[in-house]
Design a protein that fits this description.
Pathway: Amino-acid biosynthesis; L-lysine biosynthesis via DAP pathway; (S)-tetrahydrodipicolinate from L-aspartate: step 3/4. By secondary structure, the chain is α/β, with parallel strands linked by helices. Helix content is 44%, strand content 12%. The chain has one domain: TIM Barrel (Alpha-Beta Barrel), CATH 3.20.20.70.
Length: 307
């Protein structure tokens, strides 16, 4: 039986060199920073990691490096979604060989299939993969929204262990309600604004772009809300963080550019995003700097580049 993911999982950014090759030395430092800050797990090669602008070999190299750098300190989830079940299974099993515990899988998209096609896709992937499968419901990116009823049905599969919900909060609430009695299945949010509300309705974990920049704060939010059941203190912390939540996906600044810029400011290399993504503008950088200063961080100058 697969281990069930719970807690705060950071969807890792991928630092690049100036020539857009992966900076593995900086990647190790990012992972060390996250683990030392108390995250419960890491997601390698997810959307925030810019997998969609990588070759298959690059994706594999990132998964391998992520597992090696985590070195058993926390469990690793790998982004393994591909257009076909066959390719998804191949990448999932490669991730398993590297030491990953779970694979994050998007539904088939672009040329949309039926609900039956989605059902068969996930069941085939789950049956033939050597990692636990986490459903990734991200209709804003894929144009495909997996219904709460479908997620509930898939949660009955032995090797489908969790869902990452990046739809609206009403959808997440429905999923949480339908699956609350399902053993060995967890519900995660993928949105910063939904982290605290997700815990309040019984969700077991969270992803968020911002965790790359503020892992200690988001872990603290989890500890207050889930482990200590101190919702008053959790709300206070959430209010302090709310000013920076919107900046992670600000209009005209495609993520993960803003969070990478913030990491540069605190001395952890985030670096540039890969084309065709665009770099964050100076206005958004200034706003991120202001929020970091409010939170008590010492911030590098905006024009300081890290090497």
């Amino acid at each position: 039986m697969s281990i069930i993911p719970k807690g705060i999982f950071v969807p890792l950014i991928t630092p690049f060199n100036d020539d857009e090759t992966i900076d593995f030395q900086a990647y190790k430092k990012v992972i060390d920073f996250q683990i030392e800050s108390g995250v419960h797990g890491v997601l390698v090669g997810g959307t925030t990691g810019e997998y969609h602008v990588m070759t298959l070999e690059e994706r594999k190299s990132l998964i391998k490096a992520g597992c090696e750098y985590a070195a058993g300190r926390v469990h690793v989830m790998a982004g393994v979604g591909c257009s076909t079940a066959k390719d998804t299974i191949e990448l999932a099993n490669y991730a398993a060989e590297c030491g990953a515990k779970w694979g994050l899988v998007l539904p088939p998209y672009y040329h949309k299939t039926s609900e039956e096609g989605i059902r068969k896709f996930y069941k085939e992937v789950a049956a033939k993969s050597n990692v636990g499968i986490v459903i990734y419901n991200y209709p804003g990116a894929t144009g495909v929204c997996i219904s709460p009823e479908m997620i509930y049905e898939l949660s009955q599969e032995e090797n489908i262990v969790s869902v990452k919900e990046s739809a609206d909060f009403a959808h997440l609430c429905q999923v949480a309600a339908l699956t609350k009695e399902v053993d060995n299945f967890s519900v995660f949010t993928g949105e910063e604004h939904f982290i605290l509300p997700t815990f309040s309705i019984g969700g077991q974990g969270a992803f968020g772009i911002l965790i790359n920049l503020l892992p200690k704060e988001i872990v603290k939010l989890y500890e207050l809300a889930v482990e200590k059941n101190d919702m008053h203190a959790a709300r206070d912390l959430n209010r302090k963080l709310s000013g920076i939540y919107d900046l992670m996906e600000a209009e005209g600044n495609p993520y993960p550019g803003p969070v990478k810029a913030g990491m540069d400011m605190i001395g952890i290399k985030g670096g540039k995003v890969r084309k065709p993504l665009t770099q964050p503008n100076d206005e958004i950088k200034t706003k991120i700097k202001e929020e970091l200063l409010k939170l008590g961080y010492k911030v590098n100058s905006l024009d300081q580049s890290l090497v």
